[in-house]
Amino acid sequence: MIITIANTVIIVSGISGFLAFLLVLAEKFFANYGECKIDINGKKELVIEGGSSLLASLNENKIFLASACGGRGSCGFCKCTVKSGGGPLLPTEKPFLNSQEINKGVRLACQIKVKEDLQIEIPEEIFNIRKFKAEVSQIRNFTYDIKELTLKLIEPNEIDFKAGQYVQLEAPPYEKSKHSVTRAYSIASSPLHKDYIQLIIRRVPDGICTTYIFDYLQQGDNINFTGPFGDFIIRDTQSDMLFVAGGSGKAPIKSMLEYLQNQGSKRRMIYMFGARTKDDLYLTEEFRELEEKLADFTYVPVLSKPKEGTDWQGKTGYIPPYFPEYIKDPQNTEAYLCGSPGMIAAVKKGLLENGVSEDKIYYDSF
Amino acid sequence: MKETPQEKKIHENMKAGVLTMHGFLGDDDRHFHEIIAEDKAALEKLGLSCYQIADKLQQITDKAYNSYQDSILLDDKLLVSYNSVRGKTICPFGHPGGYPKGEIKLKNLENGRTIVWTPLNIHMIREHCFFEGEGSKHRLDPQIIKKTLF
Amino acid sequence: MELNPFVIFIAAIFTSNILLTNFLGMCSFLSVSKEIESSLGLGFAVVFVMTFTSAINYAVYHYILVPLDIVYLQYIIFIIVIAAFVQLTEMVIERFSPVLYYSLGIFLPLITVNCAILGISLFMVIREYNFVQSVAFGAGGGLGWLLAILALAGIRAKVNYKFVPTGLQGAGLSLIITGLMALGFIGFSGIVVIQ
Fold first, then answer.
1. What is the tens place of the pLDDT at every residue in B62-85?
2. Residues of chain C with pLDDT under 70
3. Rg (alpha carbons) of chain A, rounded to whole number
4. Residue A365 — pLDDT band, cuts 50, 70, 90?
5. A327 and A308 in one domain?
6. Quick check: is A176 in a domain?
7. Distance spanning both ends of chain B, measured CA to CA
8. CA neighbor of B124 nearest in space, from B58, B78, B31, B47
9. Residue A17, domain member (yes or no)
10. Using one digit for the tens of pLDDT, what is the confidence trace for A274-304?
11. Residue A112 sits in a domain of what CATH number?
12. What is the ipTM of this complex?
């Protein structure tokens, strides 16, 4: 009896062991793609261990394509042009690409598994994007739902960006979130300070990332971000500048104004900030000071619903009706907008009605 | 019941803390197929289709979109406000693309009923006939939609 | 037991359809038959795995289990072999054909625990088939399974547009349809019967 049991156990484990060994061997043979070369724009060559996705392989080598879904193939941001290699187009990629892109060889980097040498093309700016590790050195409350984070860079310890660009902050998995998530936030500090950045963040109800920042992140914690991204930057002309922002949209405009002040810009600038009540206003003193420091700058907060009985002396209602008052020369005005998509749509409409040309209205569309 | 790998992925996406903090299923322990099937049956009884509802919600959303920060009154009885937020969210069914974040609140002044939805809800109703699970924050019960909108 | 392998092949598809006469592989049959496309994918994966595992398990049975006198272990050993084979296939497909991997490979893990596959291996032993007969039986069984799931998926696609009483929705009506299909397949039994 015991011998039978022992025999059985030995034979079953023997066969299982043999099959497991076979599988390990097969994995070595089939799933081992060896070293693959990735040629980027014909300028840079990476040698990587094959087997993982192109997106992950590039990330490992500090080349960061934009990605919002973390390689799940559902955001379609990580597009790049594959000149050779990469295999056939997969059904998972097709919905994200139009026929022009397919003809050009555009692929989703997260869906391509690196199995052979690849030749790819990506926009030049992407080389400037880095992953940063930073320490939260200060958290300031601006209003009941807006905070400012100061992130002191640890590794690398300097960042080069243009005023108006944004970074992707990474919230690690926590109590209420199973995966780490990344969200985009504009940089509020001046590009002249290279050793830290400041972000102005507004709490999104039930937002995975903002809840982490508001309820879990503490001063002294470390946090990772990638950047800088974006082409919402100051156009180098002599046109008048009209800034319109709402909510946390102050961030990139603050960065721009501080930079312009440092450059001694003489351009005519108006900054209209839309908020609901007086409680939603912040950094007012700082912008009043900038009015003194800049040659020709006016700060115009506009409240849509000032509470009854408060001593609000400023403008009330919506921003667009005030455009005729502040736009002197519509043909010669650049508009920089930052805020929620709804606000941008409304403001853009107002600007077009007032004669500002569409190609001079700039905003981030995320 | 066994799930195909795609269904497994969809199911995972719907759980709390994966795509959104509270997920799409609420405290409903039915499978999402059952939720969809039961809502479809309910719609049939009400004489409505998913497209009709999605179209109506889209219409209202578009009208509210341009009036940021404030509410608008539609048909003299629907008070709508659109709280638009930056950023995009993705469809748990794996549809390509992003859907704007933000919330649309609607109050029917005649009977006092309120419903809340997001742009993603409109997509999920149109393409998947999915109204979210019972107890989910953006659950849109066909009965209540009918009473509020139609 | 000297049946022509071709006869076994035909019989396994129609008269002794593993799904409709033995009701094996029912769980994935019901849950994956919602769309024609995925049922086709799963169906072909089953054909492939059944054919090869019946061949491998034939060898395992006659050259390992019988000589070692451990035939009573056939259930466990067959399952292990099937699981290992499926793993291996997945690796090979992923390496050589990413497109095929996306249409077929994603169903492979689902097959490891499909009882129809084990059933084929066990029937092959009980009915004392030789090697060629076993392979024909495996391939036929797989095709029969594919045929059945494809038919159900087609019918369910139609049912989707019809009114179904609440209590019958989903698996309920599918089981009734499967029963009717099984009755229909009995009509083939005039051709040849292997049991």
1. 888 876 667 788 888 888 888 888
2. 1, 103, 105-106, 193, 195
3. 26
4. low
5. yes
6. yes
7. 37
8. B58
9. no
10. 888 888 888 888 899 989 888 889 999 998 8
11. 3.10.20.30
12. 0.82
Residues of B in contact with C169 (CB under 8 A): 37, 41
Taking CB atoms and an 8 Å cut-off, how many pairs form between chains A and B?
Answer: 90
Which of C32, C163, C170 lies at the smallest CB-CB distance from B4?
C32
CA-to-CA distance for C111 and C28, rounded, in angstroms?
8
Quote the DSSP letter at residue A74: S
Residues C118-155: pLDDT tens digits? 999 999 999 989 999 999 999 999 999 999 999 999 99
CA atoms within 13 A on the CB side of A198: 23
Question: Rounded to 5 degrees, what are φ and ψ at A340?
Answer: -70, 155
What's the domain range around A220?
Answer: 130-229
- How much is the mean pLDDT over chain B? 86
What does the block give as tokens for C37? Answer: 């496309």
Neighbours of chain C (3+ CB pairs under 8 A): A, B
Rounded to the nearest angstrom, the minimum Cα separation between C28 and chain B is 6
**Predicted pLDDT of residue A221:** 92
Cα four-point dihedral sign B61, B14, A212, A197: negative
All structural domains of chain B with their residue ranges: 5-149
Q: Are A219 and A311 in contact (CB under 8 A)?
A: no
Q: How many domains is chain A partitioned into structurally?
A: 3
Alpha helices by DSSP H, listed for B47-99, are 50-65
Sequence ranges of the domains in chain C: 5-190
Quick one: what percent of chain A has pLDDT higher than 70? 99
Query: Residue A350 corresponds to which tokens in the numbers above?
Result: 């107002």
CB B117 within 8 A of CB B137: no
Q: Which residues of chain C have a CB within 8 Å of the CB of B2?
A: 27-28, 31-32, 110
Structure tokens at B72: 């608008």
CB-based contact C84 A23, cutoff 8 Å: yes
Chain B residues with CB-CB distance to A211 below 8 A: 21
- Does C166 sit within 8 Å of B41, measured CB to CB? yes
pLDDT tens digits for range B123-146: 999 988 999 999 888 899 988 988
Q: Which helix (H) or strand (E) holds A303?
A: strand A297-303
Answer yes or no: is pLDDT of B18 > 60. Answer: yes
Determine which helix (DSSP H) or strand (DSSP E) holds B83, and give its type and residue range.
Answer: strand B78-90
- Pick from A96, A176, A341: which is nearest to B17 by CB? A176
- Residues of B with a Cβ under 8 Å from any C Cβ are 1-6, 33-34, 37-38, 41, 44
| CA A343 – CA A322 distance, rounded (Å) | 15
Collect all residues of chain B within an 8 Å Cβ-Cβ radius of residue A75. Answer: 88, 90, 97-98
Return the SS3 of A329: coil
Q: Residue C143 has what pLDDT?
A: 94
Among A210, A229, A248, which residue terminates a domain?
Answer: A229
Q: Contact C137/C69 with Cβ under 8 angstroms?
A: no
Instruction: Identify the helix (H) or strand (E) that includes residue A223.
Output: strand A222-229
Instruction: Give the pLDDT of residue C1.
Output: 53
Q: If pLDDT is split at 50, 70 and 90, which confidence band does A340 have?
A: confident
Structural domain includes residue A28: no
A182: closest CA of chain C, how far (Å): 27
Where are the alpha helices (H) located in chain C, listed in sequence order?
5-13, 26-32, 36-60, 74-96, 98-103, 108-111, 115-126, 131-159, 171-186
Interchain CB contact of C92 with A (< 8 Å): yes
